[in-house]
Structures are given as C-alpha cells and as structure tokens.
Amino acid sequence: MALIYISLGSNIEPSRYLKAGLQSLREYFGPLQLSSMYESEAVGFDGTNFLNMVACAQTSLNIAEVVAQFKQIEQNHGRLVGAKKFSPRTLDIDLLLYDDVVCQTPVVLPRAEIVTNAFVLWPLAEIAPDLVHPLQQKTYAVMWDEYDKASQKLWPVAFEWPHGSLFN
Question: Which tens digits make up the pLDDT trace of 107-128?
C-alpha cells in the first residue's frame, strides 16, 4: 500500500464541493487523515477566495490510476474538462506525494506547489510535519518554518467533516 497526500481546493460553493469530494475520496480510498481547512486569496487570477486542505490516504492503485480517479471525482462534482488553469473551480484535487516517489510522468511528483504555495505547504506540514520532502531533504515542518508567510495570505477556518480526523 502506498501512502498518498492529496491537495483539495474549491472556490465555487467550496464547503459543498469539498465535502462531496472528501466523501468520494473516502469511498475510493477508505479512511482519510485531514488537515485543517484554510482560506486563501485566489492565486494566479482575480477571483473569490479558495478553501484548501490536504488529505492523506493509502492505496494499492498506481500513480496513473490515482490521478485518473481524482480527475473522475472532479468531473463528477462539476469540474469542467479543459477549463483554464487559473480560474474558479468547484473542485480541484491534486496528488502531492505518492510515498517518496520522484517522477515526471504520469504527473510530476512531488508536486511543485508544495514548495511554492502556502495553501499546500501549511496543511501538509500540519499532517506530516516530520515527513521529509524527497528533493528538498527537509521536513515539511522545517519548510513551513522557512516559508515567506508574507507572500500569500492564508488563515484557518472552521470546517465540519464527520468521517476523518481534523487537526484543529
């Protein structure tokens, strides 16, 4: 079984779509470990604020199968195929880590947003503080401590989810 870390985000009815996305992830991957929920301003375009979090699960699927499942879940919950990268979305699910695999295909792992976006790094550091980034060779807690927190505004928000652990 591989340990996977998953980024989830939404800025269209975010509470509704994140709960629906989590329910679908739970159906396919079983129990989820969840970070707190964070609100952030849109990055890369002018839009309404996003809600973001990170989840951890185990899977026997390979990387391509995991990514395909994420894309199907997104589409099942209103994500338009071929939508612009920097645009509002009902649900965005990205594979951040698959064990300690480093690869370029079928997706780039570890995902670059871990290093560049506070809305990925903070929740990842919350649920996996002692895990070491396979390229940076630093723990996520250390990476978050060193992150320029003035570069992106981010704050924790209340979120109720009855089927996984939340670190509030």
Answer: 999 999 999 999 999 999 999 9
Chosen CATH of 2-156 out of 3.40.50.720, 3.40.50.2300, 3.40.309.10, 3.30.70.560? 3.30.70.560
Cα 144–Cα 32–Cα 117 angle in degrees, nearest 5: 25
Query: CA-to-CA distance for 125 and 127, rounded, in angstroms?
Result: 6
The long-range contacts involving 154-158, CB below 8 angstroms and separated by at least 24 positions, are: 154/38, 154/39, 154/40, 154/118, 154/119, 154/122, 155/38, 155/39, 155/40, 156/36, 156/37, 156/38, 156/39, 157/37, 157/38, 157/39, 157/51, 158/37
**What would the pLDDT profile of 76-108 be if each residue is shown by its tens digit?**
997 666 655 656 788 999 999 999 999 999 999
With a CB cutoff of 8 Å and minimum separation 6, the contacts of 108 are none
CA quadruple 10, 13, 14, 16: dihedral sign:
negative
Q: Is the pLDDT of residue 168 over 70?
A: no
Q: pTM of the predicted model, to two decimals?
A: 0.92
Indicate the domain borders of the chain: 2-156
What phi and psi, each to the nearest 5 degrees, are found at residue 92? Answer: -125, 120
What is the amino acid identity at position 156?
P
